[in-house]
Specification:
The protein has 148 residues and is mainly alpha-helical. The protein is 57% helix and 5% strand. It has a two-stranded antiparallel ribbon. Helix 3 crosses helix 5 and helix 4 packs across helix 5. The protein is elongated, with a radius of gyration of 28 Å. About 4% of the residues have low confidence.
Length: 148
């Protein structure tokens, strides 16, 4: 849950009323305590909108807002032993598709495609493009060795 903590129960109630007047949805306030809660699954844009409303409200009351960061232990990853053979099959399928595509390119087109893929960051390449880039690099390096 995302939370907003007020310095007192009275201010939390006033802030909750203000949020309702501003038609801010999703807030949960049980009427006691100094904390207003929001669901964790709300979008960042929604949360930033709420933060802006709260900051403006606090400024009008000569209050200061402070944002905090809470660090939690990451959930344990589930074992995915069953997926390993599928990923090997997927890799070989991608290699075969990339090889077929690369083999169909002329030398000039292959060089153009390699330059294009080389200029893209690795993180932006699809798995298929990554395999294609590897094959094109091998093809280019083989061409240079033969030319010597």
């Amino acid at each position: 849950m995302r939370t907003i903590e007020a310095p007192s129960e009275e201010l939390a109630k006033a802030l909750h009323v203000h949020l309702l007047e501003k038609k801010v949805r999703g807030s949960v306030y049980d009427g006691t305590g100094a904390t207003i809660e929001f669901p964790e699954n709300m979008s960042l844009a929604q949360w930033l909108g709420i933060v802006g409303v709260v900051e403006k409200w606090a400024k009008g009351r000569e209050l200061e807002t402070v944002q905090s960061l809470k660090v939690l232990k990451a959930p344990e990853p589930e074992e995915q032993v069953d997926n390993e053979p599928a990923s090997a099959e997927e890799t070989s399928r991608l290699e075969a598709e990339a090889k077929k595509k690369v083999d169909g390119l002329s030398s000039d087109k292959a060089e153009e495609r390699y330059i294009y893929l080389s200029n893209k960051p690795l993180t932006e390449l699809t798995d298929e493009e990554f395999q294609e880039r590897l094959l094109l690099a091998q093809r280019t390096s083989g061409k240079k060795k033969d030319g010597k």
